[in-house]
Amino acid sequence: MRTVDASFEFVRYVAARMRERDYDEFVSMGWCRDREELADSLASRYGSAKGVEVAFTDEGIPAAVGGALELRPGVVTLLFFATPEFDKIKVGLTKYFLRFLLPAILNGGAHRVECVTMEAHEGVHRWLEILGLKREAEHAAYGRSGQKYYTYAWVKDDVCEASG
Q1: Other Cβ atoms within 10 Å of 131 Cβ, number
Q2: What is the largest CA-CA distance in the chain?
Q3: CA distances (Å), 163 to each of 6, 119, 135, 157, in order?
Q4: What predicted TM-score, i.e. pTM, was given to this entire model?
């Protein structure tokens, strides 16, 4: 697995081929009505955004787009979507996040890392928990068709209290 800074082309490639559950989550939170419109929108928004990377399989296939975007001072939101090729890199990408990305986020001054995800996306919930985030809030009728969402978060004070 390798990662590179995002580009319009790589983000659009992954977005156009994203897993069905990722598509459902993204389309329910925005204005796009189909996969092509969503792929164009995500590529335009994140194709050159600072803090967004594309992860590739060992065969050189773009498999995932991930990012850590500072919403406000000290608060970072996680962005993630992937193709079915993600299964080939999920272990490596998890290690990359824990060993390099999270420490870089924290060294950059973040005191909060958060992610909002659809209730039905249970695999993402498990992954966020592996990454150290905890379910913090429930949002009823949050999606376009009334889907429930959750906020997962890592808060610096919680980690500092737990470790010492």
Answers
A1: 17
A2: 49
A3: 34, 30, 19, 10
A4: 0.92
Cβ neighbourhood burial of 6 (10 Å; 0-12, 13-18, 19+): buried
CA angle (48 as vertex; 90, 122 as ends), nearest 5 = 30
* 22 vs 62: CA distance, rounded Å: 16
Q: What is the pLDDT of residues 104-157, one digit of tens each?
A: 998 999 999 999 999 999 999 999 999 999 999 999 999 999 999 999 999 987
Hey, what domains does the chain have and what are their CATH numbers? Answer: 2-163 (3.40.630.30)
What is the amino acid identity at position 132? G
| 25 residue type, one letter | E
Tokens representing 153?
A: 């978060």
